[in-house]
Q: What sequence folds into this?
């Protein structure tokens, strides 16, 4: 074998080794993490099938399994009247039926959640496996999923699909309705667990603080769901993701040139962080929440460059400036 051939082989091997040292951080082995398959308890289904003529007795039977919902005094007449009014509401009865039709079983969601929770146990081995419930929220779209005292509460009526007619009837904007899809359920559950890891009183008030916190939340979800497409992770369409990638350096330059990163003014925070049809600084073709996109890039870079930092370290790090400085994030270079 000639010297040139040997040298080329050496270079190829070196490149392959280098590639292996930058493997996906969230591509982990969960085969040895043993948990029972998640079984979702359908509180909404149980509640709307109760015999109203014997409501108190029926609720007493239900209470031990669903105390997270039925923690009130069932001897209190006011509590009983409220529950009876709720399950007698014609619209809610029909919504409950629609949920049963759309979700005759929850096996697909249970399987997805079980896999995600295995990842959660990998990063947080001392954490308990959460109990999971579905219920009928009455279209409380700001709280599609809640994580309360290690209970995941899924408002099943908020996942009936973008073409479900009642969403339009109650006046929900189209850009929000697009997320009322079953494919988001597991993602939203993991997001709420991520949210529980953040102490919001420790987050600063400037835009960079909000951007990095958004990136942390997304990276947590990514760690729980390593195969999640970026479109689902960010709640973007394919076109919106394409725009974000193509204009990333322009967005970053805009933030720098307008000295927005360290601004605590409400307007930039709202426009870059809060949900909307688009980010108004960049026109109607732009995706919404571009601060989340930038945060995702910063934190992803940070975790890739600092492999001694684990997920819990990241979630407890509230020094946004340090995260940015140590991320090496410089789009367009």
A:
């Amino acid at each position: 074998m000639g010297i040139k051939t040997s040298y080329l082989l050496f270079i190829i091997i070196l490149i392959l080794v280098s590639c292996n040292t930058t493997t996906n951080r969230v591509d982990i082995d969960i085969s040895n993490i043993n948990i029972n398959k998640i079984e979702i308890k359908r509180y909404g289904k149980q509640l709307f099938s109760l015999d109203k003529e014997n409501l108190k007795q029926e609720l007493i039977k239900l209470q031990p399994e669903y105390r997270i919902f039925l923690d009130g005094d069932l001897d209190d007449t006011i509590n009983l009247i409220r529950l009876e009014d709720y399950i007698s509401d014609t619209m809610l009865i029909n919504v409950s039926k629609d949920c049963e039709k759309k979700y005759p079983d929850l096996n697909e969601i249970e399987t997805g959640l079980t896999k995600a929770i295995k990842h959660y146990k990998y990063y947080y081995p001392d954490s308990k496996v959460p109990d999971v419930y579905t219920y009928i929220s009455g279209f409380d779209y700001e709280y599609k999923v809640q994580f309360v005292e290690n209970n995941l509460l899924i408002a099943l009526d908020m996942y009936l699909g973008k073409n479900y007619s009642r969403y339009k009837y109650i006046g929900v904007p189209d850009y929000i309705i697009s997320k009322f899809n079953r494919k988001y359920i597991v993602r939203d559950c993991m997001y709420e667990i991520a949210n529980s890891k953040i102490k919001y009183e420790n987050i600063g008030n400037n835009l960079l603080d909000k951007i990095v916190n958004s990136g942390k939340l997304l990276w947590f979800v990514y760690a729980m769901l390593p195969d999640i497409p970026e479109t689902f992770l960010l709640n973007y369409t394919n076109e919106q993701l394409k725009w974000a990638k193509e204009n990333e350096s322009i967005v970053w330059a805009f933030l720098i040139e307008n000295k927005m990163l360290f601004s605590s003014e409400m307007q930039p925070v709202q426009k870059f962080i809060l949900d909307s049809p688009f980010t108004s600084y960049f026109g109607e073709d732009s995706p919404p929440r571009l601060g989340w996109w930038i945060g995702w890039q910063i934190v992803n870079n940070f975790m890739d460059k600092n492999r001694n930092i684990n997920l819990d370290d990241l979630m407890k790090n509230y020094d946004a400036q340090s995260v940015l400085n140590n991320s090496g994030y410089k789009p367009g270079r």
User: Anything to note?
Assistant: The beta strands are 41-42, 131-135, 145-148, 151-155. Residues 9-22 have pLDDT under 50 and may be disordered. Residues 200-325 form one domain. The radius of gyration is 24 Å.
